[in-house]
Amino acid sequence: MARVLIIGAGGVGNVVAKKCAQNHTVFTDILLASRTKSKCDAIVAEIRSSARTAAATIATAQVDADNVPELAALIRAYKPHLVLNVALPYQDLTIMDACLETGVHYLDTANYEPRDVAKFEYSWQWAYQKRFEDKGLMALLGCGFDPGVTNVFTAWMHKHCLENAFALDIVDCNAGNHGKAFATNFNPEINIREITQNGRYWQDGQWVETQPLEIHRPVDYPGVGPRESYLLYHEELESLVKHFPKIRHARFWMTFGPEYIKHLTVLKNVGMTRIDPVDFQGHKVIPLEFLKALLPEPSSLGSGYTGKTCIGVQLHGTKAGSEATHFVYNVCDHAECWQEVQAQAVSYTTGVPAMIGAALMLTGVWKGAGVFNVEQLDPDPFMAALNTWGLPWQELADVQLVPLTAEL
Ligand SMILES: NC(=O)c1ccc[n+]([C@@H]2O[C@H](COP(=O)([O-])OP(=O)(O)OC[C@H]3O[C@@H](n4cnc5c(N)ncnc54)[C@H](OP(=O)(O)O)[C@@H]3O)[C@@H](O)[C@H]2O)c1
């Protein structure tokens, strides 16, 4: 018997709500709350009309997750065991504050970033360690796909495949087609802030910075084929090199098509990706916020989306005294996601792991007091649940998708 409060009713919130409703023996009561209640109501109407989820007990509410007293009042009224945050990274700290105030566990899929600086790092949320520990509460950070499943894949290979892993490459390919000239697969503001930042990778135990999208190379993705992949800084690199200190080299690669790069370059060159306020006819306008208002919502991209994603982790180390490489990955089909939960694969691959992490916490399989990254917990039950809940994974031994000696 567990009550969950889901905050956020965008592309990911839709998937989380539907997967929790499918898993209604664990999630016996669900409240879906967001800034715009009508979006929650539309998702719940779909849940009630599907034979697979009609038995779920689910209600909706309006909440401003920037407002701690408002959040705390909602939590006190509903009394959830866990708050599952799939609003935006800006709301992480206010929701964590409300959980501490009301004595409730916490889970999210993206680390905090301040609105006025395009910078994400774990320092702000790791600083909550003692407060969660003192209250006997658990906060699980970054439980989507990347971060999330990529951290679990890394922990699983450390546990089962390699003795001394020292080189990590995370590869993220979306080979899908949504038919739009330019759109982002998750929140446009957060996505564009991430992609336009400088790149960064871990080399010999230190961060090396690059210009945005400066380094790229083709990667041959299983189930998809070769795609140009760009080196980015991604948040799980920070926690993985902390928790697996023997990793001396760590990189993250993501694919972008030429159309996406062309549009992003033009938008950046004309100032549309700026996050500082600009005076326009007596109003202060933040260009990126205005751009977000023009772009398609991620939740609207699913219908007619074709193609697949392939996201995986390559880990290199030693096995029985010799050097060895392992690659663990998932391939996900956009159209199948649409058929199941009316979502595209990027929302699906984020929402399913968030549901799984919450279920493991609520059933006591994953437990602890304090703030955790996913790789600190036993990967085995999570790996088993991925196969059950729609994200089956596969393993390749002795295949190198990204050469260790890549010219950077
Ligand atoms: N780890 C991963 O693999 C991964 C991958 C993709 C995305 N993510 C993360 O998942 C989260 C959701 O992404 P998404 O694609 O679903 O974004 P989205 O479609 O833009 O949805 C965001 C939702 O949050 C709501 N929201 C925003 N501010 C709020 C506030 N102050 N109070 C209450 N609700 C608020 C929005 O409400 P409105 O509808 O009123 O705007 C919307 O429903 C983001 O943090 C993103 O970074 C993680």
CATH class of the largest domain: Alpha Beta
Instruction: Tell me the count of domains.
Output: 2
Radius of gyration: 20 Å
Topology-level CATH name of the largest domain = Dihydrodipicolinate Reductase, domain 2
Oligomer type: single chain
Q: Uncertain spans, ≥5 residues at pLDDT below 50?
A: none
Instruction: Give the strand content.
Output: 25-35%
Largest sheet: 9 strands, mixed
Ligand types = NADP nicotinamide-adenine-dinucleotide phosphate
- What would you give as the CATH superfamily of the largest domain? Dihydrodipicolinate Reductase, domain 2
What is the CATH-assigned architecture of the largest domain? 2-Layer Sandwich
H/I helix tally: 14
Beta-strand segment tally = 18
Account of the protein in words:
- The protein is α/β, with parallel strands linked by helices.
- It has two domains: 2-141, Rossmann fold; 149-341, Dihydrodipicolinate Reductase, domain 2 (2-Layer Sandwich), CATH 3.30.360.
- Helices cover 35% and strands 27% of the residues.
- The protein contains 14 helices and 18 strands.
- It has helices spanning 11-22, 37-49, 68-78, 92-102, 123-126, 129-134, 149-160, 188-195, 235-243, 258-269, 287-294, 334-341, 345-362, 379-388; strands at 2-7, 27-34, 58-62, 82-85, 105-108, 138-141, 167-174, 199-203, 206-210, 216-221, 225-232, 249-255, 278-280, 283-285, 308-319, 322-333, 370-373, 393-397.
- Strands 7, 8, 9, 10, 11, 12, 15, 16 and 18 form a nine-stranded mixed sheet that branches.
- Helix 13 (345-362) crosses helix 14.
- It is globular.
- The model has no long low-confidence stretch (mean pLDDT 95).
- NADP nicotinamide-adenine-dinucleotide phosphate binds at residues 8-13, 34-36, 39, 63-66, 86-89, 91, 109-110, 144-148, 186-187, 190, 297-299, 346-347, 350.
